[in-house]
Every structure is written in structure tokens, then in C-alpha cells.
Design brief:
Blueprint (H helix, E strand, L loop, with lengths): L4 H12 L4 H4 L23 E10 L9 E11 L4 E12 L2 E16 L3 E17 L17 E17 L2 E8 L16 E10 L5 E12 L2 E14 L13 E11 L3 E9 L4 E10 L9 E11 L7 E3 L2 E3 L3
Antiparallel strand pairs: 1-2, 1-14, 2-3, 3-4, 4-5, 5-6, 6-7, 7-8, 8-9, 9-10, 10-11, 11-12, 12-13, 13-14, 15-16
């Protein structure tokens, strides 16, 4: 059997759980801005409507390389200490396509003066199709190949917890829970487990910064990544916005390194008090991928529901619940 080398590399690294498994669970480069894709507890934030969209093109220049589109919307209801959300993810890799619509609910278990704890659940469907007609085999009668169009849809479930105080965020989550006792196959997205810790300091008048560490495990594969980000500020005394208190962060940049030999550069800009855009570039140091970088674009929009409850207070500080 001989598929095109590019199809073999893309499809089988996705399915078998090799170093590109982050793409299988769309753990995108901009996940440091929005963790809802793998931790539903993330949406339990202050009282505003939150919209997030991102698109990713991986390994530019390689035919059939992964491409992802992700959109999420959520809103926190302060009186109920609850948040509800909806996410839609599409992922195309060579001959395979997946569609993953999910409904999310998160509850603020505890909201104290200087810390908060949230739990979240996401439930939906995972739909994957394989278009066998695009296979190009040297031996057309190879019995291991299927040239037909195949499709499957299965229920999907994620769970997560997130703790935050003035400076620290800790999270634990698990995705695709129905796959916990099942081995990966062509139509099943394997169970992933996430753990992360983030330190944030927003006290300096001219900038803020964060340091993050995350570990992802899938089957016998573990990938670790570290992130450092900086956000430049300006005074916002003249800006009339319920989402702005004190200095306003206007420009951010950061770097991420993954143990799967990837370096990521991130850049973001706040266009208005409500709108932020971002871009990331991934450079792989794996053999054969030096010339094929990955690009990602992000859009983040926040609409305040109540001007009096759009920030979460920790002691004497007020800030967005990131």
C-alpha cells in the first residue's frame, strides 16, 4: 500500500496519537486566551456575553494539512452563579473531516473575597467522516484500503475544574470521556487529560504579564508546554466602558514552547474596549517541517450585560476573569 506520503503522515499521526495529538483535540496556539475548548469551567466568568472565534492553517504548503475553525459563545448569569455556552468546531485533515458541536454549562462552586472555584460540563456530538475516494494507492486492490465515503456520529462529553485567586489560575480537565476505556480508531477521538497553572501579575501600571505551564496526556503520549506573555497598558480614564477599570491593556505578545519541538509566537491587539484580535505563528523543529509553518487568527469580543457586574473582585483588585 502506498498513499501519498503527505496523507500518510497527516492522517496517521492524528489517529495514532503521536506528537501532533494537540491538533486532534484542537489545542490551538491561542488556547491561552480561551481554555473553553478543553476545560468547560473556563466560561464561568463575569456577567457579559463572550464571543470567541479562531481559525488555524497548519503546515502551510502541504496538501491536505490540518485546518481548523472554532467558534464559541457563552454568557455568565451572576444571579445564578452559572454560565451557559455553545461551541462549534470543524477540523479537516487530509481525507478526514470532523464536526464537534457542544453545549456547555459551568457553575461557580465558590466565590469568595479573594478566590473562586468553578466546575463545567460540555456535552454534544463528535462527527467524523472519511472520504476514501481521495486515496491514491499504488496497488488499487489493496484490501486494507476503503474507497467509500464513511461517516459516524457519537456522543461526546468533557468535564473540568478551574480555581483562581488574585495571581494564580489552576485547572484540571478531561475531554472525550466516552473514549476513556476505548482505544483510538479512525472514527473516535481519544480521551485527553489536561492540567495547567498560570501566574498573572496585573499590578504594574504600564504592563501586565503571565507565566503558564500546561501538561496534556493522551494514552501513552504526554506533551508539555510553557508560555510567557506580556500586555502593554495605557491609561483609560477617558474611555467610557463598563469592561475597563483603570489602565487598559492595548497590545500583547508572547511565546510558547511545546515539548513536541514547536515554538509559537503570539501577538494580540485590543481594537476597542470590547474587541480584541490575535495572531500566532508556529514553527516546528521536527525533521521535514522546517519550511512549513502554521498560522492562526483569533477574534475575541465581549459585550457587557450589566455594567455593575462585569468584573470579578479579588480583595482590592478588579480584573477580567481570564
Amino acid at each position: 500500500m502506498k498513499l501519498k506520503l503527505k496523507y500518510i503522515l497527516i492522517i496517521f499521526t492524528l489517529i495514532s496519537g503521536m506528537k501532533l495529538m494537540a491538533q486532534a483535540d484542537i489545542s490551538m496556539a491561542t488556547h491561552w486566551n480561551n481554555r473553553a475548548g478543553y476545560n468547560p469551567a473556563f466560561i464561568a466568568r463575569p456577567d457579559y456575553l463572550y464571543l470567541f472565534a479562531s481559525t488555524r492553517q497548519q503546515w502551510v504548503g502541504i496538501k491536505g494539512a490540518p485546518s481548523v475553525f472554532n467558534v464559541q459563545v457563552s454568557e455568565y448569569i451572576n444571579s445564578l452563579r452559572s454560565a451557559v455556552g455553545l461551541s462549534l468546531v470543524t477540523d479537516k485533515v487530509g481525507a478526514t473531516r470532523s464536526f464537534n458541536p457542544m453545549l456547555t454549562y459551568a457553575f461557580r462552586i465558590a466565590k469568595k473575597k479573594d478566590w473562586a472555584l468553578s466546575m463545567g460540563l460540555s456535552a454534544g456530538m463528535f462527527v467524523r467522516t472519511v472520504n476514501g475516494s481521495v486515496f491514491e494507492a499504488e496497488n488499487s486492490i489493496d484490501p486494507s484500503l476503503s474507497y467509500i465515503y464513511e461517516k459516524t456520529a457519537r456522543p461526546d462529553l468533557n468535564i473540568g475544574f478551574e480555581f483562581q485567586n488574585t495571581h494564580f489560575i489552576y485547572g484540571l480537565s478531561s475531554t472525550h470521556l466516552f473514549s476513556v476505556v476505548k482505544s483510538d480508531n479512525l472514527f473516535l477521538n481519544g480521551n485527553h487529560r489536561y492540567g495547567y497553572a498560570i501566574y498573572r501579575n496585573e499590578e504594574p501600571a504600564d504592563f501586565s504579564y503571565s507565566l503558564g505551564m500546561q501538561v496534556i496526556n493522551r494514552s501513552n503520549l504526554t506533551v508539555a508546554e510553557g508560555n510567557v506573555s506580556f500586555r502593554l497598558k495605557r491609561m483609560s480614564n477617558l474611555i467610557k466602558s463598563p469592561l475597563v477599570r483603570g489602565p487598559q491593556e492595548i497590545l500583547d505578545f508572547g511565546f510558547t514552547y511545546r515539548s513536541s519541538k514547536q515554538m509559537i509566537f503570539l501577538l494580540g491587539m485590543r481594537i476597542s474596549p470590547y474587541l480584541r484580535i490575535g495572531y500566532s505563528y508556529d514553527q516546528s523543529f521536527n525533521s521535514g517541517y522546517y519550511r512549513n509553518g502554521s498560522h492562526e487568527i483569533m477574534l475575541e469580543y465581549r459585550i457587557p450585560a450589566k455594567a455593575a457586574s462585569t468584573t470579578f473582585r479579588c480583595g482590592s483588585k478588579e480584573f477580567w476573569y481570564h
